[in-house]
């Protein structure tokens, strides 16, 4: 047996029968139980790569994890973890999820895990990161939203491979978020003016329903996103709402009419423009194996012209966000919705205002979005058939420049948009 899922069974101890698969088990899921500790002999699972134990009662990350020889992915969301022992982090650690816990500090050993690519820390009580992380060679995605940061570490945007960063919902941007939410109440949509429709979708931060808005004598098709009100892997729903409302109007952004003016749900719902029927995400989110890379259907191909067209739309939307003091933080194909030749940038769960007290970091933080754009562009160019790939040298050169962007070098999105608009 390679996978064993024991979710939601009220377990307080690992069943002895699990050890019958100690030589073959690669994934163990203990989420939704009543564990307050895990066994000291987890190292017996010699091939265990992935361990989930979310929604349990642990207050310490189990030290026994550190002795697991093959363990790469650890998920302990929504426990009560306040302590991470230095030796609890396995040598092959690649993906660590500690969202929604009670952490105030992290061990320096976190910076001594050279394969670490993805670190999820939203919804804790952190005000700093271990200085040892400043040299993390592989870290590409970091979530520190909904914590207690008064400032970002000065070295953060200089991490060599960082591309996706979320920091909203911390004291350093609280005033800007509150102002965006307060200003938006002037354009709130009355709940009584909406006729509800069918469910359109559901994500980590909320559910989206179709509706018809009776407005100025017209009936407008809209979508209503109701936030779940709890911390997600990206941060607080209110932070996402604030970023959406501050993003403004652009052809490649999902239109936002305003918050829903309802006494029960007004602070946690947005009325959006409804996109065309049949709109689909360009890719699926990263898998366990791909870690930080989206998963495309095997038969996905793009023409050279559509790559340029998509890239120009996305770059234009990103240029607007950056001009408004926002960073998206999650620029991925799975957050791009496509209908024909049009794309819309969606999902502002990781979006954040630039920290006003740290202007010296702004260029570096914007450069992270540019690097993420470089990943996108590379994924699309790699899917142009060989017989249609002529004259892509300029786009590949742009892709390289974007992936290597830093605070001091690399194009901004205004320059990228201009370049892509040139025949």
Automatic annotation (TrEMBL):
UniProtKB keywords: Kinase, Leucine-rich repeat, Repeat, Transferase
EC number per UniProt: 2.7.-.-
GO terms assigned for molecular function: kinase activity
UniProt-listed InterPro entries: Kinase-like_dom_sf (IPR011009), Leu-rich_rpt (IPR001611), Leu-rich_rpt_typical-subtyp (IPR003591), LRR_dom_sf (IPR032675), LRR_domain-containing (IPR050216), Prot_kinase_dom (IPR000719), Ser-Thr/Tyr_kinase_cat_dom (IPR001245)
Pfam families, per the entry: LRR_8, PK_Tyr_Ser-Thr
Magnesium in keyword set: no
Domain Protein kinase: 194-423
Gene3D superfamilies linked: Ribonuclease Inhibitor (3.80.10.10), Transferase(Phosphotransferase) domain 1 (1.10.510.10)
Protein name: Leucine-rich repeat-containing protein kinase family protein
Source organism of the structure: Ottowia flava
């Amino acid at each position: 047996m390679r996978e064993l899922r024991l979710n939601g069974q009220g377990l307080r101890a690992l069943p002895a029968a699990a050890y019958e698969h100690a030589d073959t088990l690669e994934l163990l899921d203990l989420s939704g139980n009543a564990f307050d500790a895990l066994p000291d002999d987890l190292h017996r699972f010699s091939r265990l790569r992935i361990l989930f134990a979310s929604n349990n009662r642990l207050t310490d990350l189990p030290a026994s994890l550190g002795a697991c020889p093959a363990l790469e992915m650890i998920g302990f969301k929504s426990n009560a973890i306040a302590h991470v022992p230095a030796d609890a982090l396995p040598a092959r650690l690649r993906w660590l999820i500690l969202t929604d816990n009670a952490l105030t500090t992290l061990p320096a050993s976190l910076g001594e895990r050279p394969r670490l690519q993805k670190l999820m820390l939203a919804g804790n009580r952190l005000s700093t990161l271990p200085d040892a992380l400043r040299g993390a060679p592989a870290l590409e995605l970091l979530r520190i939203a909904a914590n207690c940061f008064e400032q970002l570490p000065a070295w953060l945007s200089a991490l060599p491979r960082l591309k996706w960063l979320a920091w909203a919902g911390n004291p350093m941007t609280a005033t800007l978020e509150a102002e965006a939410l307060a200003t938006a109440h002037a354009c709130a949509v009355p709940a009584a003016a909406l006729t509800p429709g069918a469910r359109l979708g559901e994500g980590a931060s909320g559910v989206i329903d179709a509706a018809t808005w009776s407005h100025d004598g017209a009936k407008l098709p809209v979508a209503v996103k109701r936030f779940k009100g709890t911390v997600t892997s990206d941060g607080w729903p209110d932070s996402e709402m604030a970023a959406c409302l501050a993003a403004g109007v652009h052809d490649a952004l999902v239109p936002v009419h305003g918050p829903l003016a309802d006494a029960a749900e007004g602070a946690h719902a947005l009325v959006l423009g409804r996109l065309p029927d049949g709109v689909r995400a360009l890719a699926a989110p990263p898998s366990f194996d791909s870690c930080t890379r989206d998963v495309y259907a095997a038969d996905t191909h793009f023409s050279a012209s559509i790559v340029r067209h998509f890239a120009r739309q996305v770059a234009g939307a990103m240029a607007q966000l950056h001009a408004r003091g926002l960073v998206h933080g999650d620029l991925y194909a799975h957050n791009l919705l496509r209908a024909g030749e049009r794309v819309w940038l969606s999902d502002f769960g990781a979006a954040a205002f630039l920290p006003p007290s740290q202007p010296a970091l702004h260029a570096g933080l914007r450069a992270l979005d540019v690097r993420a754009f470089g990943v996108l562009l590379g994924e699309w160019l790699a899917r142009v058939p060989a017989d249609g790939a002529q004259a892509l040298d300029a786009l590949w050169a742009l892709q390289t420049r974007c992936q290597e962007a830093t605070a001091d070098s690399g194009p901004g999105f205004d320059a990228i948009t201009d370049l892509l608009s040139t025949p």
